[in-house]
Write a structure and sequence with these properties.
alpha+beta; Beta-Lactamase; Helix Hairpins; five-stranded antiparallel sheet; five-stranded mixed sheet
């Protein structure tokens, strides 16, 4: 029962109860008083007649005031109800949403003007018509009708979903619905009410934007890859031409062959970057020590960063062992070092740190919560820093702030894909003009298992990228 609504049974009950109490009290006390004061039967009869008329007058007056009060309450309630209904209808007519109510048979008992404008039907044409036969497309009509009937039977309906509706011309509009079950005063289900938002144009814009983004990404990728492959092919073709001219010079021929091999490895490395970004590259994990990775790469990294950048290392005193693909971890480190170098065009300091951290319920940006011991590899530069608007996009594929042709935008995306594939993550701290710090977290493994292949004098990726160029 609605709050403030007069009860159809309580009002008559109260009136009858008051009437019965007043009547009982009047009869009991008046009769008792007459028995004590009057002995003459004739006098008793006359007084009884007068008493009866007084009783009628009193009870009539009482009933008058009770009924008048009840009628006033009913009028007040009806006035408030009509005002509430008027406000509800005004609200439903003014909102840019579909508002519709269906009875248990699926017939339309209420709809607002927005539905009429959107569909092209008039109110007279659709009021009382079946919603499913009029508005629901044929392929989904039976399924929605079944869901509707099941919801009525269970007293619960799917509150949020989307489906297309038909207009008068037969075109479809995509609607996102929010529904609720309607009940009467006794709690019985009488129908369903729904509010719907037309998202047809919004979805079309989303599709166009997505297509534009795809084309832009493909164009960026094609430009970067074409530039890199052109450089690689130029080296290979130049060396082949020189080989033809100097086929008799064994020493020079060996140098040219080494250059061809180095250029070919760079092409393979570019393909490896694309595979790592798509997370389709096969990895071979083994226990490796991040300290040893940094030590082994140090000489090669110093050649990468150039003379203007100082490389500093701060390694953990204990071994920092992780289960990872050594070649891919080296690739991540060199990509990030390359980015750090590009962020310091006028020189600076690049610091690589390793450490072991204990995390207790650490919340990540993707919503996951992690706990336990992790290996942390930090790469810090004193460069230009990353603007806030760019910081949210640095791991997006093909995103780069470099000039056209100077990068594919896959460096950090590739690193992100590799670390994610190793059940880790990358955190970024940066401030414009004050440098950046990239923190790589990987699950720590028990020490005691030495990384296979650590006796190599030159890192695997360094050999892949080595070239006299």
């Amino acid at each position: 029962m609605e709050s403030g609504r007069p009860d159809a049974y309580s009002i008559p009950t109260r009136i009858v109860a008051i009437y019965a109490i007043v009547s009982g009290v009047w009869i009991f006390f008046s009769d008792s008083l007459l028995d004590l004061l009057v002995d003459d039967p004739r006098t008793m009869a006359r007084i009884g007649m007068v008493k009866g008329w007084v009783f009628v007058l009193v009870t009539s007056t009482l009933l008058f005031f009770l009924i008048r009060r009840t009628v006033k309450q009913l009028r007040d309630f009806n006035s408030k109800f009509q005002e509430s209904e008027r406000r509800f209808r005004e609200l439903m007519e003014q909102v840019r949403m579909i508002a519709v109510m269906l009875d248990r048979q699926g017939q339309i008992v209420f709809c607002n003007d927005f539905l009429l404008q959107l569909s092209g039907w008039s109110r007279e044409e659709i009021m009382g018509s079946n919603w499913f036969d009029t508005f629901v497309p044929e392929p989904i009509r039976n399924d929605l009708r079944t869901t509707f009937n099941q919801g009525l039977a269970a007293g619960e309906i799917v509150t949020h979903y989307e489906n297309a509706i038909l207009t008068r011309t037969g075109t479809e509009r995509l609607i996102v619905w929010n529904n609720t079950v309607l009940r009467d005063g006794a709690g019985s289900v009488t129908g369903i009410a729904g509010l719907g938002i037309d998202v047809t144009d919004h979805r079309r814009l989303e599709e166009h934007l997505l297509q534009a983004q795809k084309m832009e990404s493909i164009g960026t990728l094609a430009g970067g890859v074409a530039h890199d492959f052109n450089n690689i092919l130029t080296v290979i073709l130049s060396c082949v031409s020189l080989l033809r001219v100097r086929a008799g010079d064994a020493e020079r021929s060996k140098q040219l062959i080494d250059q061809i091999e180095g250029a070919s490895r760079r092409a393979a490395n570019l393909t490896s970057s694309l595979l790592a970004f798509s997370r389709k590259q096969q990895i071979v994990t083994r226990s490796i020590d991040l300290n040893q990775i940094v030590i082994t790469l140090q000489a090669f990294l110093e050649r990468i960063i150039g003379e203007d950048v100082v490389l500093a290392t701060e390694l953990s005193g204990a071994g920092v062992s992780v289960m990872a693909d050594r070649g891919q971890v080296e690739q991540v480190v060199m990509n990030m070092v390359g980015n750090a170098r590009d962020a310091m065009p006028h020189g600076g300091v690049l610091t690589i740190r390793t450490s072991i951290v204990q995390l207790n319920g650490q919340a990540l940006e993707d919503g996951n919560v992690v706990s336990g011991k992790y290996a942390r590899l930090e790469i810090t530069d004193t460069g230009e820093g990353i603007a806030l608007k760019d910081r949210k996009r640095i791991f997006e594929p093909f995103f780069t702030t470099k000039e056209v042709g100077k990068g594919t935008g896959l460096g950090l995306s590739m690193a992100y894909g590799i670390i994610k594939q190793h059940n880790g993550w990358i955190a970024v701290e940066s401030e414009t003009g004050r440098g950046s710090t990239f923190q790589i977290y990987l699950p720590l493994v028990e020490q005691g298992r030495e990384a296979e292949g650590e006796e190599r004098e030159e890192p695997e990726q360094a050999r892949r990228w080595r070239s006299p160029l």
